[in-house]
Amino acid sequence: MLSLPSDPELDRLVVEIIGRVADKWTLLLIEILTERGDCRFGELSRACEGISQKMLTQTLRAMERDGLVTRTVYPVVPPKVVYALTDLGLGLSKAFCGVWEWAESNREAILRARAQHAQRQSQQDTPAG
Amino acid sequence: MLSLPSDPELDRLVVEIIGRVADKWTLLLIEILTERGDCRFGELSRACEGISQKMLTQTLRAMERDGLVTRTVYPVVPPKVVYALTDLGLGLSKAFCGVWEWAESNREAILRARAQHAQRQSQQDTPAG
DNA sequence: CAGCATCCATCTAGATACTG
DNA sequence: CAGTATCTAGATGGATGCTG
After folding, report:
1. How many Cβ atoms are within 10 Å of B5's Cβ, its own excluded?
2. Separation between Cα atoms, residue A4 and residue A11, nearest integer Å
3. DSSP string spanning A79-112?
4. Average pLDDT, chain B
């Protein structure tokens, strides 16, 4: 038995870890690195359309800090920095497959639920309108 | 074929959905509701130790809006409101099992990676002591 | 090319007080 | 019991300008 199923403290730890890795850009970067393999900074920047350099750097540093990616600097001109998933990052990528597939399969159900909810809301707002 | 594996737009949609459902409190509430079954507001409040009423209400409303939980109000005194996972919510709960197990199994690896990273950082800060 | 430093708008989370 | 309303500190994220 690796862990008690209902240990509140463990739950909190796990939730914190998931909360840290489950943000928008981290997931997108993991997805991109899983699909493409190793990438340079600029390639990630283009693939993550809409991300700012600041967020890209920040997210990559956090991922590096948590051991999800490696950062390799080549001492050439112009500079070349390559990011690669570690085994830990690859494991996370696989672990997220289930959630990813769930989100793909159920995104319409969620959008439908939201639409219905919005309808009920507007009905409440104008009950006899 | 349900989806192209590398459709950037789909990726974004999925990432947004995951980003919305993968926050700290949502995960904790899903965990609690999965473990305990239907819960009243107060019970969730106590189980999610540290959460404020505001965040609890806010998170539950978002979950209700996205069709993850149902909210049933009993017209009694004192008020009684019961929250229950929907099939969608239950599916998400199951989908997250993989990530949950990954986080449990690798939390020490992550903490170790961070510790090593912190060491390397302090070595860089004091290169010649 | 691959960043870092800075400023600024916004969003968030929590504390507090009040209500049916 | 189960909320709502309000206020505020802090985190978040983007734009800009500069560097090796």
Report:
1. 9
2. 10
3. -EEEEEE-HHHHHHHHHTHHHHHHHHHHHHHHHH
4. 88
Window 58-87 of chain B: CB closer than 7 A to strand D? 60-61, 71, 78-81
Q: Looking at per-residue confidence, does B6 or A38 come out higher?
A: A38
Q: Which two tokens stand for residue B19?
A: 């980003």
CB B106 within 8 A of CB A91: yes
What's the pLDDT score for residue B67?
95
Chain D nucleotides reached by a protein CB under 7 Å: 1-6, 13-17, 20
Cα B115 from Cα B117, distance rounded (Å): 5
Instruction: Considering only the beta carbons, identify the residue of B11, B104, B110 that sits closest to A67.
Output: B110
**pLDDT for the residue numbered A2:** 43
Please tell me the pTM assigned to this model.
0.89
Q: Averaged over B89-118, what is the pLDDT?
A: 91
pLDDT at B114: 87
Write phi, then psi, for B48 (nearest 5 degrees): -85, 65
Cα–Cα distance, A17 to B106 (Å, whole number): 10
Beta bridge partners of B70: B84
